[in-house]
Amino acid sequence: MSSPGNWGSNEFGHYDPNTRQPGASGSQPGMQYQGFGTFSQPQQPPQSPPPPPLSQQQPYPGMVSGYPAQPAPTPPGKSRGPMIAAIALASVAVIAIVTTIVVLSTSDGGSQAAPPPPAVTSTPSKPTPSATSAAPPTAANPQLTPLVPGWQVATVPKRGAVYDVPMNWKLDSNPEGVHGFGPPDDPVTMTGVAEYQKGFCTGAPTSYRAVSGATARRGPDDTAVATETLQKFAAVAYTRAGQAPVVLPGPPEQLQLTGGVPAVRITAQITMPSPETCDSATVAVSVLATNNDGQSSVVFIAASDQNVPDSVPVDTLKQITQSFRGAPK
Q1: Tens digit of each residue's pLDDT (9 = 90 or more) over 185-219
Q2: What is the pTM for the complete model shown?
Q3: Closest C-alpha among 235, 237, 227 to residue 289
Q4: Three-class SS of residue 111?
Q5: Exposed/middle/buried for 29, CB within 10 Å: 0-12, 13-18, 19+?
Q6: Distance, C-alpha 288 to centroid of its chain
């Protein structure tokens, strides 16, 4: 699957679905905003005073006028040759006496040399596990309990919602970051995004094999919104070389989300006539619409490449969409 435009970080900035225009970019680096268009340059750090002239510098310890002090010469003394000779003769005599005592003591059995200490044997320690073994993944929001055991909870602050994904999915570090599909003037956008196998395509760090996120779309009821969103998402996300994908939707499903909230889900198979590099020829998409007020619905989308190694099956996509629910108060 080709990567979407992450409009929270690229040239378009954040997309505003109300005005259908990209939002303004942030302030320039190195400047501090002080309100109403006034910028100020950051203050420069104070300069340290220049060092004093050499003539005023204090000499280093042990130095005279800045140069090392020379040691005083040792006055000549008496010759030490006779004393050294006397000490050497006395040492030879002592060694001869000690040797005689040791020989006599050994010969009469009075004392024996101590036996050598026993050899020390050590038990080899057990091998420790390799430090390079992969650690199990950690839940992104451990304070939230998933509906699906063993999964993790993704948050969608913009929609006041949460949902569950498997532990090997990567959640956007900024759940309010906008991911856009299609042109900036008429896109399908998502926030609270989670991705599977992000960066799998060489040279495309924002590529993925599966993606999920929430948005809102206009329409008179949930069924109409789910149908229109599915067609729109397929067109903007999977058109290649001017060729629109083939969309085979299943029948609308009437669901009850957590808390008895009604929803409509449509799951479809999408086929691309001319897939590009790293694309899969077929994609499964599950679109859920809920909370329609007569004008628009909250929409949740989950899509995954099919017929590729370790692909996310359709049943898992349905588990993900079924877990969509209001955030805990």
Answers
A1: 889 999 999 999 999 999 999 899 999 999 999 99
A2: 0.63
A3: 227
A4: coil
A5: exposed
A6: 30
